[in-house]
Batch of 2 targets.
Target 1
Amino acid sequence: MVTLDIDLTIEQYHQALDEFVKGNPEPVLKIFSQREDVSLANPLGPTALGRKQVVETAERAASYLQDGQPMRFETIVKVVTPDIAFTVHTERTMAKLVGRQDFAPIVLRVTTIFRLEDGAWKIVHRHADPIVTQQPVDSILQK
């Protein structure tokens, strides 16, 4: 759906993420930019650059999830300009990791950058990591 309303796009994105934690990356990928400067930094690996890598990375990440419950989003900040918007929020859900029978909590700190492209808001970058509490300084050291 083409929309100039960033709030509507963010709502569609949140609904798409509900599908993602059920193992279906397609609704999220529809909101990502088709352009080659798109990127994705998920908690499972290095940053994906370009549409092909973003699709592969999102599909791989979604394949590890199943039976996810609807997400809760805690917005920390939202900034909107005429051409660029970004959100910083915490995502909370429960899902089963493939091969496990029990639900596990998933909590991520997320920054999402949107760009207005051809009359629609598209994601050009998403960064998500599990750091939602204060960490010791040595946690930044490479192991």
Target 2
Amino acid sequence: MKPNIYLVMTRNCNCECAHCYIEAGPEQEHTTLRGRNFERVIDHLPKIPLELTLSGGEVFTQKRDLYLGLEYICDENEERSMLDQGKIKVVVQTNGTWATSEERLKSILFDLVSLGVKGIGITSGDFFHVQQGVNTKMLEKLESIAEKSGLFSYVNLRGASKKWIVPLGRAKQDYRITEDTSSIFSFDNFKSCKGCLSEYNLSIHPNGNLYTMCNQIQIPGNVIEEPLVEIVRKARTDLRLRELDKGGIRRFISRKDKAKEDKFRSFVEDHTECVACFWLYPDGVIKSQD
């Protein structure tokens, strides 16, 4: 499988959903990764075939920056082709609220194809977004037209359920994992932190900071400032992060948190490792130095 890098371009969003783990919402344009900082992140990605998901927030609230960013990735892919390096496959993740008419959605799909986008992830087919006024019928039309066009290698309409939310940020207020509530959570569909470094399955935030896919563990370094391969190389010298890469959160915890290891072992028998991790570390980010 290709490395899968998840780039949060902005926390700006036209919705303010209760389950949002990055606390996205209106009037957060200042959080957008744009201009030279966006270009530096792209320049600092590994020169190998990889999948890059551009997400938010809602990227279409920052449409100009999104399109400029996609143009830059097209230029990067042309250069990679000339140098016989792996290309970046771009997936755009969106809540689809811009699809207010069939004419408009077709126009934007055409734009995305022209800008080299290979996949579309529509992430708002759930009751959290319905509460924010999202029209699910229009989302289904968007999915159908995108699929039938044959222009995208990946089209997916999905949504969050209570048991699959990430209990960070705003979501933690209403969906905090405790021993009493743990049974309602299930993270079987989450990508494991195992292999996050060796396979480059990582999440980059708008400020350039680097995390595991679940955003629970921060990897020291900033992708705006230095190449991702260098950050990962240094991360592999950290014993706990190396153990995380080899064996996931179970081995990560066992390296230092012996007091929590016994709790983790007993708890994980009835729940997934991810549920146990969020339960043991309810305050979010675990830094490797902790």
